[in-house]
């Protein structure tokens, strides 16, 4: 250990913490690795061993205490911008071919879709506007 400077050991520690980060996808390992990088900086600038450990612990705990709650809050929020099929639900469409419980065609978001009525006894004639309530496969369910 005398042949290798302390800052190199801290860099090895940071790299070693990157391995479980990649394997487990737990962001806490990245925060610990950042603490090890900060300790490497202290060691490189001539700080003592106790100071290095304190910086490692302080930076790691601070990052976990500050970043983790923010990340959890963002993870549990629904996306503001819906895409794909979810973006089509609730939109209006124009009937191209009569739509009833067994099928038909509509123009939805500039594309022709197969469609069927939610209420099997109801029918919509060509030219009528309908609302898309769901998408099942490639078929729009309309009312």
UniProtKB/TrEMBL annotation:
Segments crossing the lipid bilayer: 50-71
Localization (cell): Membrane
Membrane topology summary: Multi-pass membrane protein
Record bears the keyword Membrane: yes
Gene3D superfamilies: Nucleic acid-binding proteins
Pfam families, per database record: NfeD
Keyword Membrane: yes
Source superkingdom: Bacteria
Keywords linked to the UniProt accession: Membrane, Transmembrane, Transmembrane helix
Major subcellular site: membrane
Coiled coil (residue ranges): none
Domain called NfeD-like C-terminal: residue spans: 86-142
Family annotation (InterPro entries): Membrane_assoc_protease (IPR052165), NA-bd_OB-fold (IPR012340), NfeD-like_C (IPR002810)
Record PANTHER family: INNER MEMBRANE PROTEIN YBBJ
This protein's name: NfeD family protein
Gene source species: Streptomyces hintoniae
């Amino acid at each position: 250990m005398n042949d290798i400077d302390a800052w190199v050991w801290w860099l090895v520690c940071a790299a070693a913490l990157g391995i479980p980060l990649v394997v487990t996808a737990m962001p806490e390992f990245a925060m610990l690795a950042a603490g090890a990088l900060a300790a490497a900086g202290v060691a490189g600038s001539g700080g003592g061993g106790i100071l290095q450990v304190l910086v490692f612990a302080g930076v790691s705990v601070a990052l976990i205490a500050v970043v983790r709650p923010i990340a959890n809050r963002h993870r549990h929020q629904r996306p503001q911008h819906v895409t794909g099929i979810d973006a089509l639900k609730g939109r209006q469409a124009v009937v191209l071919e009569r739509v009833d419980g067994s099928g038909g065609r509509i123009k939805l978001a500039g594309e022709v879709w197969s469609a069927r009525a939610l209420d099997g006894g109801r029918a919509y004639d060509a030219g009528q506007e309908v609302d898309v309530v769901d998408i099942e496969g490639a078929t729009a369910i309309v009312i």
